[in-house]
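Researcher: Here's my situation. A collaborator sent me these components and asked whether they could plausibly form a single complex. I don't have experimental data yet, so a predicted model of the whole assembly would be a useful starting point for our discussion.
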Amino acid sequence: MAEFKEISPDASAGEKLLNWVDNRFPASKLYKEHLSEYYAPKNFNFWYFFGSLALLVLVIQIVTGIFLVMHYKPDANLAFGSVEYIMRDVPWGWLIRYMHSTGASAFFIVVYMHMYRGLIYGSYRKPRELVWVFGCAIFLALMAEAFMGYLLPWGQMSYWGAQVIVNLFAAVPFVGPDLALLIRGDYVVGDATLNRFFSFHVIAVPLVLLGLVVAHIIALHEVGSNNPDGVEIKGPNAPKDANGHPLDGVPFHPYYTVHDILGVSGFLLVFSAVIFFAPEFGGYFLEYNNFIPADPLKTPLHIAPVWYFTPFYSMLRAITSEMMYVLIACVLAGAYFGAARTNLPKVVKAGVVGAAVFVSLLMLSIDAKFWGVVVMGGAVVILFFLPWLDNCAVKSIRYRPDWHKYMYGVFVVNFIVLAYLGVQPPSAIGERVSQLGTLFYFGFFLLMPIWSRIGATKPVPDRVTFTPH
Amino acid sequence: MSDTPVDTNKRTWLIASTCAGAVGGVAVAVPFVSTFQPSEKAKAAGAAVEVDISALKPGEKMTVEWRGKPVWIVKRTPEQIESLNKTESQLADPKSERKQDEFTPVYARNQARSIKPEIFVAVGICTHLGCSPSDKFQTGAQPSLPDDWNGGFLCPCHGSTFDIAGRVFKNKPAPDNLQVPPHMYLSDTKLLIGEDKKA
């Protein structure tokens, strides 16, 4: 137990109260550790808005969600009507609903930007691996949250989207059909499915999400924030002032709290514009088919997931039985490289070749449908391993070889092309492009241990680059 | 770590009680996970459906609901039946040999996948990911379909195509032909879907 602190009898009532609390709960200590004495690098740029914005959107989603639950009915016969009731009859209900639906898309925009920031500045590198891993887990939880939330309005897209995604699980060999049955709680998506998704969406996943956000921030504050230069401001050799505080850092509060108000203002400007002027955002934030009640007998002519899932959905669609031969060739080429071009012990090499042959046989014998699911899941899971895939000598894109910038540029363009193809109806040319895109996406990560080493890095400065205004 | 020696007796009991606790925890999880299964009510809702097909004209399709799924009944024209010969070479499983127990009952193991060649009964759920394919009975070139299209079904979700007997074309995401549900004729114009003579 900490030492019991006495306070002068002349202190003000407020100081006495704070002292009383501090002797029983670490209020001042937490405030200092995480705000007034949490030193963040002073060279943060535009990209550093998105962390705090993600927190803001999380709060918006939770608050609007609480109010929506007061009027929504999780029942297959009533759900669609209750959403229309919120939109038309509940005073200001339309605003709360649009805030929640736009918030979902905003969440993904902000999180994608936040992840891209981490990618280009090497914020996942040692010692921040766990910050990144917790972040990826948040992304995964967010996808689950968004997917289950999308079923609740019980429109055509809700229904058929859920039908498709739940059936993905049925593709798992042996246990698949039973697993899909366990998820749906019925032989098709129905009332039981709606009720359990509602429960997950409003209780289970948000609890997990909040826990992960706390872990993400605790891990971040333990190791300290990275910055656009990738220079450690708290390392043993970093310059410090007389009190041991980093010279290249400023206290989070008041400097970055005030700084973030600018980001919040900019964000709210755009967010409000969308809510008031284009809440459906041309069918991208709320799909038109979702304004038709769910009909289990009729699939809409064109179904596509909401935009934030489409890059992954494209990769799912790219895996056809033809594509499987290309993937098998990739696996065998990888095994050849491992066996013939490296200095691994013989036993390991034999293991690599054996595993590759085994996987190839599995790939030949199990439907492409299952491998499509594996690829889609793998596209998210591979992000968790990023800290151990990057072998570049420097962290930040600023000091990486120039050609790395093009590599990241192509990665972003590829991701956007995949996203675009995912909203389009299937076509022969789109299929080929998405297959190439899928190969590039995985090549980018799986070959990163090799390509990230190639090229001459630039000298990294000792201090962060910062010009006072 | 402290230097005090480990009390092995106490440790043994700690391990034993932790294991017992873990077993108890798993046992408690069983009823919770079991609630995910279809309820008794959902299981009971699978009764067979009787359909009157007397009003169905050649080239038309009707849809009925059985176990929450759409079941199609198509009355094929002679040209459509003839087209089954043309599509044969482009199909993934023309003889419906894959997973017969699940997808093709004994009486539908023929080219037309039906009891009577002109009446085709199938569950209108794509074997890929469960979308309901749409009718593409019009022959010839059209968007998302090959130029030599003979009429059949197109799944809007991932572009799988099926011929007029629900047989899937090669190189499409769907692995299997459309499911033919258990069904039987009660009379010439009355169909029972969900039950057949064996049952």
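Model: Some features of this prediction you could bring to your collaborator: Residues 137 and 212 of chain A are 7 Å apart (CA to CA). The mean pLDDT of chain A is 93.
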